[in-house]
Structure formats: structure tokens, C-alpha cells
Design goal:
349 residues; mainly alpha
Length: 349
């Protein structure tokens, strides 16, 4: 608005200047200075005209923006009024629904109470009916059972009568047979006693032969046990001997390697320094390694465990032959490997 007022003032000035310029054009110029002033004023007028056109364009655009914003504000006001109406309507609806809910809840409570009372009555009636039905069914069953029992007893009475007559006949026949069997029994007892004496003698002889066979089998088992124990010990002993031989062969190889590396003069010089013989010096050089001793201990423990395992197998229940065979074969394979190792060492040496 301020810019507008400034432009209006400038326009008025321009009009005033144009009027003054017209008057000055009518009056003859007494000198050159007024012409220059007029030119300057014209230039200023042009610049002001340009500014006015620019300002008018900006004013028009601002007016358009203001109009658009006013239209938006109106639309927003309309929306707000609609939303307020909707809100009021919704509030009224919520209040109505709440009042209806309360009424429905009260109705539901009353209906639930009546329903519960009716259910109780129905349950009581159903229980009474079921009790009466069960009592009627039990009475019917009793009646049926009583009638069946009556018919069964009548049948049994008739059967018993018939059976009694038959048994009386059988008794008479059995009494006669009993007399005959008693006579036969006495004869059988005499023959059986004679046969029993003969059988007792035969069984005594058979028992004696069986006892002898048992003793023989026990002796054989003991011999087999001693054979297995001796075999395992021999195997273990031969394996240990092979291990010691392998160790000795390895030591011999090491000693020879050392002898090759050390000259005879150096050995004698070392012996003279230590004040010992050459053989003692060789023994000093042949000190066992800690790893070898540990390995030997481990092998000894394994052999011990193997012997214990075989002892357990022998003492165990049948069958144990396959397990015993596997254990002995394992040791034989170990011995075979040791023999091969020893042969290869001997060839090398």
C-alpha cells in the first residue's frame, strides 16, 4: 500500500512536470541551461515510467495472490464449518449410542438373570427326568433278569434230574470197574517195583559215567585255559623282546652314526679329559631319550591291559571265542609289524 501511495505521488509529480514542460516549451528558452534540465527531467521521467510499469505489474500479481489466498481462506472456513457440523453430529450420535448401550446393558442383565433362572429350572427338570429314566431302566433290567433266572433254574432242575439218573447208572458201573482196577493195580505195583529196581541200577551206572565225563571236560577246560594264558604270555614276551631288539638296533645305528661323525682321536681325547674308558664314554653317549622311555611305559601299560582283557574274556560267559581270536590276532599283527621293522633295521645296519 505504501508503494502504491509512493507511485501515485510520483504520477502526480510526473503530470505536474509534464504541464511545466509544456509551458516551458511554449516559452522561448533564454539560454542553454533550461534545455539540459529538460533533458534530464525527461530521462528521469522515462526511468520513473519504467519503475511505474514494473510496480504496476507487481501490484497486479500481488492482487492475484491476495485474491487466491482469500479464496483459499474462504474454502478453509467453509471446510472448518462443515467439520464442526460433522463433529457436532458425531457427538450427538456418540451420546445416543452411549444411552442405547446403557439401556441394552440393563436389558441384557435382566435377560441374563431370567436365562440363568430358566437354565437352573431346566437342569433340575433334566436331572429328575434322567433319574426317573434310570430307575425305570433298572427295574426293567431286574424284571428281565428275574424272568431269565426263573427259566434257567427250571431248565437246570430238569437237567439235574436227568443227570442224577445217569450218574446213578454210572456209579453202579464204576463200582464194578473199581473192583476190577484194584485187582489190576496190585498186579501193576508188583511189576513196577521190579522195573524200578532195574532202572535204579541202570541210572546209577549212567550217573557214574556222566561224572567221569564231566571231570574230563573240566580238566580239558583247565588245560585250555592254561594253554591260552601261556600263549598270551609268550606272545607278550616275544613282542617285548622284539621291542627291546628294535631299541638296541636303533641305538647301534645311532652309535655308529656318532662314531662316524666323531673320529677315534676325538673319542680318545674326550675319554682322557673325562678320565674314563672309550666304552664308558659310549655308554654315556647312549643315554635314553625321555620320549622313548615314555613310549616304552605306554607300550608296557597297553600289554598289561591286553593281558587283563584276555583274562576277562576267559572268565566271561560263552560265547567268547570270536573276541579272544580278535585279541590274539591283534597281538600277532603287532608282532608281525615289529618283526618287519626289526628286519629293515638290521638290513640298514
Amino acid at each position: 500500500q505504501q508503494e502504491k501511495e509512493d507511485l501515485q505521488g510520483k504520477l502526480k509529480l510526473r503530470e505536474h512536470l509534464s504541464h511545466t514542460a509544456g509551458k516551458s516549451n511554449a516559452i522561448p528558452s533564454p539560454s542553454k541551461n533550461p534545455d539540459l534540465e529538460i533533458k534530464q527531467l525527461q530521462c528521469k521521467l522515462k526511468s520513473s515510467n519504467n519503475e511505474i510499469t514494473k510496480q504496476s505489474a507487481t501490484i497486479k500479481s500481488l492482487k492475484k495472490e491476495v485474491q487466491e489466498k482469500e479464496e483459499r481462506i474462504r474454502a478453509l472456513h467453509a471446510k472448518i464449518s462443515r467439520l464442526e457440523r460433522d463433529l457436532n453430529m458425531k457427538r450427538h450420535l456418540v451420546e445416543d449410542l452411549r444411552s442405547r448401550l446403557k439401556a441394552n446393558q440393563e436389558n441384557e442383565k435382566t435377560s441374563n438373570e431370567t436365562l440363568e433362572s430358566l437354565e437352573r429350572k431346566v437342569k433340575a427338570l433334566a436331572e429328575d427326568c434322567s433319574n426317573k429314566k434310570t430307575s425305570i431302566d433298572s427295574l426293567k433290567q431286574r424284571l428281565n433278569v428275574a424272568t431269565k433266572e426263573k427259566s434257567q433254574y427250571e431248565q437246570m432242575y430238569h437237567k439235574a434230574k436227568d443227570e442224577l439218573e445217569k450218574k446213578e447208572l454210572k456209579l453202579t458201573s464204576l463200582e464194578s470197574k473199581m473192583i476190577e482196577t484194584e485187582c489190576a493195580m496190585t498186579e501193576l505195583e508188583t511189576t513196577a517195583s521190579q522195573q524200578l529196581h532195574g532202572l535204579a541200577k541202570q541210572s546209577g551206572h549212567a550217573l557214574e559215567t556222566l561224572q567221569k565225563k564231566l571231570l574230563l571236560t573240566n580238566d580239558k577246560i583247565e588245560e585250555f585255559m592254561t594253554f591260552v594264558k601261556a600263549l598270551t604270555r609268550e606272545l607278550q614276551h616275544s613282542v617285548q623282546e622284539l621291542r627291546t631288539k628294535i631299541k638296541q638296533a636303533k641305538k647301534m645305528g645311532e652309535v655308529r652314526a656318532r662314531k662316524k661323525s666323531l673320529s677315534q682321536e676325538s673319542v680318545q681325547l674326550a675319554a682322557s679329559i673325562l678320565n674314563v674308558s672309550t666304552t664308558d664314554l659310549e655308554e654315556i653317549l647312549e643315554v635314553e631319550d625321555d620320549e622313548e622311555t615314555a613310549k616304552a611305559k605306554m607300550e608296557f601299560e597297553k600289554d598289561k591291559e591286553w593281558l587283563q582283557y584276555i583274562q576277562k574274556l576267559i572268565e566271561a560267559q560263552f560265547p567268547f571265542a570270536s573276541y579272544l581270536m580278535d585279541a590274539i590276532l591283534e597281538k600277532l599283527n603287532e608282532k608281525k609289524k615289529l618283526v618287519e621293522e626289526y628286519n629293515s633295521l638290521m638290513k640298514c645296519t
